[in-house]
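User: Quick one: structure for sequence A, then sequence B.

Assistant: Sequence A:
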Amino acid sequence: MKLIIQPEAGVVPVVQAIRRATKAIDIFIFRFDRDEVEKALAAAVLRGVQVRALIAHTNRGGETRLRKLEQRLLAAGVLVSRSADDLLRYHAKFMVADSVLHLFGFNFTKLDIDKSRSFAISTRDARTVAEASKLFESDVTRQAYSPGKSHLVVSPENARAMLSAFIAGAKKELAIYDAKVQDPSIIKLLKERAAKGVTVRVIGSMKGRDPGIEERRPRLRLHVRAIVRDGTRAARACGRTSSKTGARWDSSSTTRVWPGRSCRPSSRIGRTRPRAHG
């Protein structure tokens, strides 16, 4: 598993992942203004890679740009589909390139990649990659998605249950990146963990201050929702949103819960000094 930290890494890891693909690329796009990524996708088509792009049917203020992107990608030979409109929004940002899943906390934009704190995770875990491919296929064909047994957590289908279990399992520490933690049930769980002696730290803010939970302002614009539990496990969110189920973490999301070591984000929380957002 590989962790990418923005803005330090920049766009290069995304372009390199596309260039390494030899068979197929499935990419979900919510916002997009990176010419480097667009050119890499077009070049992949020219070398015989099947490239499919699933583009959000809407985003706030950017629909015209998305429709123009669809036309350019179609002209380059990319197989382009548009997400359904049954959910409030399809907010996922991920890519499956051959046998690797790349899950991005950031959009493919200059603002998110160059000027914001965010993360991405790449994994070859076969079950997780297969589940992400299943999700992409369900959304690209507009068919119902039923979660399988994997570490992939998808809202609105199973996000609340799996995120709640993830938080409830903390023994020592929960280190959280979230611009605004506001889901009542998640806040209740965090307060319960803090009352049990778990150190809970938030870079961002939380609705309703609690003396047992430390909040700090980010030094950079924050564009990721992530939790590191006990320094060994991490949950990262981006995703599809339901206006009906309420199964969401903050504005809500497709979340991936990853086993194994992922400690760097947690160490960054410890080093960040309070500072006004921006």
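Sequence B:
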Amino acid sequence: MNASTIRSQPAHHGESDGGAIAPPDSLRERSGQSSNAGARAIPNETGWSARRAVWRMTLIAPVMAVGTAGVWSLTLLPLPSSLRVSAVNALVTTCSRFLLRALNVRVQMVGRLPSAPMLLAGNHLSWIDILAAKSLWPEAHFIAKEDVARWPVVGRITRAAGTLYVDRARRRDLLRSIPALHESLRSGRSVLLFAEGTTTDGSETLAFKSSLFEGAIRAQVPVLPVTFRANTGAEGAPVSTHVCWWGETSLLAHLPRVAGVRRIEFTVRIGEPITPGTCRKLLARRAHLAVQRAARHSDRS
């Protein structure tokens, strides 16, 4: 199996879905686009160039190969677990920053990221979110759906980087994941949760899945709302199809869409920390409201 076979999985919007990093799920029709819009041919949009896409893909291919080989080598070395995770994270961060520069994705962080450990709860647009987050917070860990662990290459890299996995099909798996998240937060590591449980086309912020917010309550660490937004300019290619990764589009098919865009302004907006309290559902709603407001503010500005 190669990257072209990595596709989105059917949506599970029940509470058993812990709000993890996920391949994009199909969304209902929005703005005249059906959920399988991603499978259509790339339009010749103003702001998108096939020549540019080919050139940038040529630039990033060897970096992706070297980075993958480097991570693979680190997983085979007889290193202490903590040292291996640190080394893998450092390499992944370096590769993420290079890929963003090569794709002309300009990441801007608005607000300050506190030094204390927190559960970062954000919306989810694309795999670019992960690169942007890694470029800004090298030490942050992620929560991913269990099926990501089975992806070729990607699974090995995410596992080596200390990713926490959640099996969304098994409710009881959340009972295992919550203590693991609690332990990670209590040990001083910040963890990023894409709390919608799926990617979207950016037109709205879906309700946050509340289950894994229990980890922040048990650890008594604040939840930090994080909002990801993208802009390609007045004459740029549509963000919904050329930046956001959703529908039935494979990763290999989506990559040239991003690579052909002239410029992507990617904003990561940091909100105010939210005291965990004792109710995970209330905590999730407060985080969702903060991200939703920040997204609307970014779209108006």
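Residues 1-17, 21-44 have pLDDT under 50 and may be disordered. The two ends are 43 Å apart (CA to CA).

User: Thanks, that's what I needed.
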